[in-house]
Amino acid sequence: MPSRIDPERLRNSLPALSEAVAASAETLHYQTYYGLDLPHRTQVQRRLGRFRVHDYDVVAQAWWPEQPHASLLILHGYYDHMGLYRHVVDWGLEMGFAVLACDLPGHGLSSGPRASINEFAEYQAVLSGLFEQARQLDLPRPWHLLGQSTGGAIALDHLLHQAENPDLGRTILLAPLVRPRAWLRSRISYELLRRFVQQIPRTFSENSGDPAFLEFVQSQDPLQPDILPTAWVGALSRWIPRIEGAADSRHAPLIIQGEADMTVDWQYNLPILQRKFPSAEVLRLPEARHHLVNEREELRQAYFDFLRERLR
User: Fold this and answer.
1) Which of 1, 27, 93, 194 could pair covalently with 23 via S-S, beta carbons 3.0-4.6 A apart?
2) Which pLDDT score is estimated for 1?
3) Rounded to an integer, what is the distance from CA 296 to the centroid of its chain?
4) Residues with Cβ within 8 Å of residue 148, at least 6 apart in sequence
């Protein structure tokens, strides 16, 4: 049975992320349920709090090893939340990074209509807010940015359209979204339905080779949305031309893509990204599916090794 986690109650009980306060029993329960307490890392400090972006209360978490020498900022994917990212958090701490993550609007503990967004520009506002939290917490530079799927879309949008950020280190794009699989069919369905239907039931997919993760998401995670709002699809349809029409960039992101990914149209997306970022480095994993953050351990270790060599 899923744990009893009330996201609204927990969110409303949280202080500003910049305030250091003792964790409540409800906070500790949440972190323990998702493994974010990382009990094997006894010298790590952690904090759960919130910050305001537009009309959203965004919930964020930070972790500090004893002597961090850089930072890792994490952007999760669509339908995800911070609770599913303990493997990446743990790897970041192992690398000696301070780690900062947040739940996007409509996801996890953050406020907003479930799994929805008005425009993808709101995600850029959240990323700007996350950078501001990193400044307030005085997280060590450089700040490496990691995004999975929609989180990767947010990161690549930032690279293509925002001014140079002197605090930013390397950007890691895990199965980044440009176009989802079967996008033409999805867009036609959206145009037909959007005037009559605000949401449709979510279909869970086998987006990882880890059966324990799939079982957890489908039956044990209380923070999983069970709908697909047509508003989110509309926002995506307006965002895709913005990315496809962007000028090339001098940035050199690290792109990791599974070739068994049935969520994004990676055969279309990768050439687009390699044209936009001629200096990008790409690791293709033939057996990996879409949810790289929660793929089988041997696949995670393969791309962690790739990243470790480039982020020393």
Assistant:
1) 27
2) 56
3) 18
4) 75, 76, 77, 80, 85, 174, 175, 291, 292, 293
Q: How far apart are CA 237 and CA 191, in angstroms?
A: 10
Is residue 194 predicted with pLDDT exceeding 80?
no
pLDDT at 187 over 80: no
Q: How far apart are CA 139 and CA 143, in angstroms?
A: 8
Contact of 53 with 125, CB cutoff 8 Å: yes
Paired residues of 51 in beta bridges: 58
Angstrom distance (rounded) from CA 264 to CA 44: 35
157, pLDDT greater than 80:
yes
Question: Considering the chain, what is the average pLDDT of its residues?
Answer: 95
What whole-number percentage of the chain has pLDDT above 90?
90
Residue 186 has pLDDT above 80, yes or no: no
Q: Which of 153, 205, 202 is nearest to 179 (CA)?
A: 153
Q: How many CB atoms lie within 10 A of CB 286?
A: 8
Instruction: State the maximum Cα–Cα separation within the chain, in Å, rounded to a whole number.
Output: 55
Domains and their CATH numbers in the chain: 7-307 (3.40.50.1820)
- With a CB cutoff of 8 Å and minimum separation 6, the contacts of 42 are none
pLDDT for residue 119: 98
Residue 176 token pair: 């980044």
SS3 280: coil
- Work out the burial of residue 201: count CB atoms within 10 Å of its CB; fewer than 13 is exposed, 13-18 middle, 19 or more buried: exposed
Give just the sign of the alpha carbon dihedral 241, 150, 15, 47: negative
227-277 pLDDT tens trace? 999 999 999 999 999 999 999 999 999 999 999 999 999 999 999 999 999
Is residue 81 within 8 Å of 294, Cβ to Cβ?
Answer: no
